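Tokens for Glycoside hydrolase family 3 C-terminal domain-containing protein. Go.
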Amino acid sequence: MTADVAVETTPEAPLWNDPDRPLTARVDALIDAMTLDEKIAQLYGVWVGASADGGEVAPHQHDMEEAVDLDALLPSGLGQLTRPFGTAPVDPALGALSLLRTQSRITAANRFGIPAVAHEECLAGFAAWGATAYPVPLSWGATFDPDVVRRMAAAIGRDMRSVGVHQGLAPVLDVVRDARWGRVEETIGEDPYLVGTIGTAYVQGLESAGIVATLKHFVGYSASRAGRNLAPSPVGPRERADVLLPPFEMAIREGGARSVMHSYTDTDGVPAAADESLLTGLLRDTWGFDGTVVADYFGIAFLKILHGVADDWADAAGAALKAGVDIELPTVKTFGAPLAEAVADGRVPEALIDRALRRVLGQKAVLGLLDPDWSPVPPALAGADLDDPEALRGTVDLDRPENRELARELAEKAVVLLANDGTLPLAAPRRIALVGPNATEATAVLGCYSFPQHVGVQHPDVPVGIDLPTLRETLAAEFPDADITVARGTGVDDGDLSGIGEAVDAAGRADLVIAVLGDRAGLFGRGTSGEGCDAESLALPGAQQQLLDALLDSGTPVVTVLLAGRPYALGRAAAGSAAIVQSFFPGVAGTQAIAGVLSGRTNPSGRLPVSVPRGPGSQPATYLGARLAQASEVSNVDPTPAFGFGHGLTYTSFAWSELAVDAREAGTDGEFGLALTVRNTGGRPGTEVVQLYLHDPVASVVQPVQRLVGYARVELEPGESRRVRVTVPADVASFTGRDGHRIVEPGDLELRLAASSTDARLTATVILTGPERRVDHTRRLHAVFTQEPAARP
């Protein structure tokens, strides 16, 4: 096989193969030429795994699937290939060759020569063996830096595109409503504006590389009752509209996302997969989305199995198709023979199939998959000898130095210094007791959708595929003159107390204890964080709190380091630790980033994307609570966090001053202009994150006490000042009124310029005047920040 493999064409190529013809005409002509079976075949995927020797992919078996007969399916065509790289450990070059050969087989088998769209997971990097594992989305949120996330996503997208992948199943835009939910690590945080801006940046980066970004999970998944995976979501229409939907709205409007994945959940008795008002009425008719809606894996079948709103597979297929789902993933179950039978007996109009098909084929056309010169050879294999698979092994590098450098930058910006009594940064520690289950665990930096934790754990005989230095190794490099004694103390979740005595002895002989605690990422109960790994409380898993308390009792200063997928209550360690360093599964460069913060080589600049609770049982609680959600004398449960959303310390200090307001009044269609001066009053360079919160004292419906409406990272040298200006449109004060429409109300507002949700520095009281104004999805979404050097005094 040579690198010039392509679909054969003639001068009389059909209209649909002509890229110079209008897209609509091409798609319509192709649909008109198709049989019903050929139409339906474009609306489902098949779960496959790449061949380790470069041969064609093989169907992957799962307990939700029946066996798939590719020979029987392919003559009608195929819509998608599910996770050819993300199903088993395969050398990337041989995986690309396997995908190439499979695409050649697919195009040869169907009479239109249409290839499949190949999709992969890419939540914390391309989920393929040997690919860079970046920090998880909760760390993206901690950076408060859309630019670095955009650059990371572009790098992920380039790697995916290079080996023949077309679509990525990311980002997750669920807003955290209960930190006990196992998938908190996959989210960006508990604030919709932060989730929206960071998630939109990810979409922009992925799409810039030619990869179709897939927004998930639309919508309400993270609001499940009691934080349980796949539980019902008891949210009202206002919480849905004002908290859960805005990130999706922003990512579609500003990010250009081309696909949306429906949620598993039901809201008020209507499953998302069968919600026509959501998937068609809002998403398409109101927001104008013209991309594809894909099923979350097995989500259409769940309409029968879990939700009980469909009598059989055909009913499930018809309900999803009518609602607006275009593609069944991960494999064919309801959109195959059951759907064809439902059309034949009149239960499902063929027009619904044509509607979905028009979107699917339109996207394939934009991807170039209908062009006469389309080739299955991906860029990574261009010019290679495709007849010698072994010569290809090791020739495709998905973990290049520039990837790791980007992973390092993001990890460093995401480390949050929660507390510090002056112990950090460490100057030249002589004797360190390094204690805890994550001190010597290489994979402690990885989330559940990283390839090693998602797939690699099922193949213990295969090397992890990427370099993952432990914190023990990076601390030894960071402090070469220190005597480091290691004691495990206890496991992440085994409850073993037998090693605590040894850990305390090590602490007694040391000048400093570094306690490395947190989570183990996994799936469906195989970890303490991740999909299906929900928590009953926010106490540290296992016996880790007992270990931490025993270390505090030793009398040696304790620096608590957390490698985790969610925030945890730390008991008396929240106040008793000499310092607390929080990192949310920071990826391949994570331990170097933490070591750099401990030594002071890096000045921490991360801020909390989720609140850290004071106690383990106060969930669900986020900083977005209304007045009734705050601490009061009529309840003995205090939801006040130990560390609030947006909190984070640095090794320098900043002064905020000279607040100026252009005008105290503006119309409900106007804007306010604010300015302040931020000065680095410390002795080293640092980054302050200026956060803007809005407080609406009196509104026609209950509002959060405050909510984030803008932010900016301000990087300053020692002694340097910056004048920070922000334009605040009245639109950002909008909310869903009593009649279900989004409105801007006249009245008083407080614009709080703050270092966190619990640390307001400067407050401007302003007034919106004029009539109540209705706004929609075209409203202004951002308070716009600009920075300039401050005038010298």
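Residues 45 and 80 are 4 Å apart (CA to CA).
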